[in-house]
Specification:
Order of helices and strands of chain B: HHHHHHHHHHHH
Oligomer: heterodimer
Strand content of chain B: under 5%
Number of strands of chain A: 20
Shape of chain B: globular
Structural class of chain A: alpha+beta
Order of helices and strands of chain A: EEEHEEEHHHEHEHEEHHEEEEEEEEHEE
Number of helices of chain B: 12
CATH architecture of the largest domain in chain A: 3-Layer(aba) Sandwich
Distance between the termini of chain A: 42 Å
Radius of gyration of chain B: 27 Å
Low-confidence stretches of chain B: 294-305, 308-319
Largest sheet of chain B: none
CATH architecture of the largest domain in chain B: Orthogonal Bundle
CATH superfamily of the largest domain in chain A: P-loop containing nucleotide triphosphate hydrolases
């Protein structure tokens, strides 16, 4: 058996009524990778996950794991199990009975499956609650039972549908770290679906950004944060400023765009006269009271400075459009003095990022 | 004159509503309490009267005031060997058996129908209303029509074991919409994600049904059966013209009330049948209390437990 991991090739899912839920998805996921599908609701991420899990079938295209075709294979027969949104624990079974269910279905005898189930429960730190019913557990504990229930069957990949959605924020932060640590130790592929950018950035080896039924961009968290491919990704990842205009010059690997707010430059290639856009991350924008430079600088009005603990987020107004910057928290007092006043926002050419149209 | 009585009745009925609308809550409460008590007396008064009158002595009367209260005479009378009482007891046992069968049929059909209606299917809407139609069909006319049909096809009413078939049939049709609606509401609140998880973990459809679905809905199935039982036990109209020589309890009571001198044993009989129904409901409540729905324990959001890295060594290694 090969070790090619999970491969989605030309996968489409078209629902009755000609609604395209997923279009032209091509992905190669290595074994042991932590992948996060990120996108707004209705973007096709959950449908993609369901197709991988076998709870839905592609209209066309193939899904393989280590070279084995999964199309049409019953979810139970796949080496992939799902941690469902809201966990879907069996409410009438105890923690132990929940966890051993998969083994029972595989026909493992009672003593062996109890032993393995107990090991899995131990793994998620719930040994003391083996005989409780799910309703006697907190949200975080139910989440762990759901994890133990799939881990015990030793899948090649685990699918997690909004696994942290039902938890309060503190517990979310804790579970992020725990889930990631667990995945690293076990070396199993985790495919995790969320609409939360912060969660995706903090957990993924690679993020698959989906929007409008297609894959918008695939990359490491760092790459996505720094180099959003198009406007959808730039806007969805947040904290990016997008400036539109017409390309007025393109030579030597540098493109100049005339925006209504001034000229901007970025590395890249383009055709003069065409539409162009760049994105600038909030954290690379510099704020000063200097004169506005002729290039890569705009005049903005500072509406409000938001203190975030380690940084200050500046909500500014660029001729009626929002513009953002992030500066070190040291400057909070200074920045607050500018509230309601005009300031100059600048950035280096290499920090501006040309977007695909 | 009668118009005046109607007006008085309307005013009395309107008082609690007016109190609710126009008075502050603390002022309207006593008025509402009184009207509630009137309602309770109206509902349970006859039953209570029946209960009281059943404990009279041998010279007991059919109406209040009761005579020689505190005697079990009319209950022991139920056990006498008079042909009347033999017939009554026969009616009770026939009714019990018929009701049990109807209960089983109602529970089973309600379950399968409920399962079917979890998905949309062609003709589902028509079937839904067809089932509910039996609620609206006049029972006596149904009985009449069926009796003509049975005559036409040469079926001997009330003969042998086959004679029970039409009785059980009409009673099950009568009880089915109630059981069906119970199951519809059960599946309405039912969370199908657990089933999806079961299939994901390797359970077949049958195993999923046995391990997950049935344990979660069986109190509903039991409830549907209970409806079937009590409705069948009290069913008169639909059974009336098709039962032939098989006299169920309600039919027997009808015959007695219309053809002989009534004595307080009818009250003690009423008490006994109500007790049977109460017993069943009690069994239902006890069983459902034992099997499910313990109130949520107090839950602290996180108990400090965590996924322990040292335990990871014992983890199954994917090979």
């Amino acid at each position: 058996m090969s070790n090619t991991g999970l491969v989605l090739k030309d996968v489409y899912r078209i629902f009755p009524g000609n609604v395209t839920a997923v279009s032209d998805v091509n992905l190669e996921i290595s074994n042991g990778e932590y992948i996060v599908f990120l996108g707004p609701s209705g973007c096709g991420k959950t449908t993609t996950l369901r197709m991988i899990g076998g709870h839905d079938d592609p209209s066309s295209g193939t899904i393989t794991i280590d070279g084995e075709l999964l199309n049409g294979v019953n979810p139970a027969k796949r080496p992939i199990t799902t941690v469902f949104q809201h966990y879907a624990l069996f409410p009438h079974k105890s923690v132990l009975q929940n966890v051993e269910f998969g083994l029972k279905m595989q026909g493992v005898d009672k003593t062996a499956r109890e032993e393995q189930a107990k090991a899995a429960i131990d793994l998620v730190g719930l040994s003391a609650m083996m005989d409780r019913k799910p309703r006697e557990l907190s949200g975080g504990q139910q989440q762990r039972v759901a994890l133990a229930r799939v881990l015990v069957t030793r899948p090649k990949a685990i699918l997690l549908d909004e696994p942290l959605g039902g938890l309060d924020r503190l517990l979310q932060m804790k579970m992020r770290v725990e889930l990631r640590a667990l995945q690293r130790e076990l070396g199993i592929t985790f495919i995790h679906v969320t609409h939360n950018q912060e969660e995706a950035l903090s957990m993924a080896d690679r993020i698959v950004v989906m929007g409008d039924a297609i894959v918008q961009q695939v990359g490491t968290p760092e790459h996505l944060a720094r180099h959003p491919r198009n406007e959808f990704v730039a806007k969805f990842m947040g904290d990016n400023n997008v400036l539109h205009g017409k390309i007025s010059a393109a030579s030597g690997g540098v493109v100049t765009i005339d925006t209504p707010y001034g000229k901007v430059e970025a590395d890249g290639t383009g055709t003069v006269g065409e539409e162009g856009a760049i994105s600038v991350r909030a954290s690379v924008v510099k704020i000063s009271t200097d004169a506005v430079p002729s290039i890569n600088g705009v005049k903005v009005r500072l509406d409000f400075a938001e203190y975030l603990g380690d940084s200050v987020k500046l909500h500014m107004d660029l001729d009626g459009k929002p513009f953002m910057a992030k500066v070190h928290e040291d400057r909070y007092a200074e920045i607050r003095a500018y509230e309601g006043k005009d300031v100059t926002a600048t950035w280096a050419r290499e920090d501006g990022h040309l977007l695909e149209q | 004159m009668s118009l005046l009585w109607y007006l008085i009745a309307i005013v009395i009925l309107a008082i609690p509503f007016a109190a609710m609308v126009f008075l502050p809550i603390n002022r309207s409460k006593p008025i509402l309490l009184v009207s509630f008590l009137i309602f309770i007396v109206f509902m349970y008064g006859p039953m209570l009267t029946m209960g009281v009158l059943s404990f009279q002595g041998p010279f007991g009367s059919m109406t209040l005031p009761a005579k020689d209260l505190g005697s079990l005479h009319w209950f022991t009378e139920l056990r006498s060997d008079s042909s009347l009482m033999v017939g009554v007891r026969d009616g009770i046992s026939k009714s019990l058996w018929i009701s049990l069968v109807v209960a089983a049929i109602t529970a089973l059909l309600s379950l399968t129908l409920g399962m079917a209606f979890r998905r949309q299917f062609r003709g589902g809407g028509i079937l839904f209303y067809a089932i509910l139609l039996s609620l609206m069909t006049p029972g006596l006319l149904l009985s009449l029509g069926l009796s003509f049909l049975l005559y036409y096809i040469g079926f001997d009413k009330g003969q042998g074991i086959l004679g029970y078939v039409p009785i059980i049939g009409v009673q099950a049709v009568w009880a089915l919409p109630f059981g069906f609606l119970v199951m519809m509401s059960v599946f309405n609140r039912y969370d199908a994600r657990a089933e999806e998880a079961a299939r994901d973990l390797g359970a077949t459809s049958i195993t999923t049904f046995r391990e997950v679905t049935l344990p979660l809905i069986w109190t509903g199935v039991f409830g549907a059966g209970l409806f079937g039982f009590t409705l069948a036990l009290n069913e008169f109209e639909r059974t009336f013209l098709i039962s032939g020589a098989i006299n169920t309890l309600p039919l027997k009571l009808y015959i007695i009330t219309s053809s002989s001198v009534l004595r307080p044993y009818v009250y003690s009989l009423g008490v006994v049948t109500i007790l049977i129904s109460f017993l069943l409901i009690a069994v239902f409540l006890i069983v459902s209390a034992l099997t499910g729905r313990k109130k949520d324990l107090a839950i602290e959001e996180d108990d400090g437990g965590s996924m322990d890295a040292s335990a990871l060594q014992a983890a199954p290694s994917g090979d």
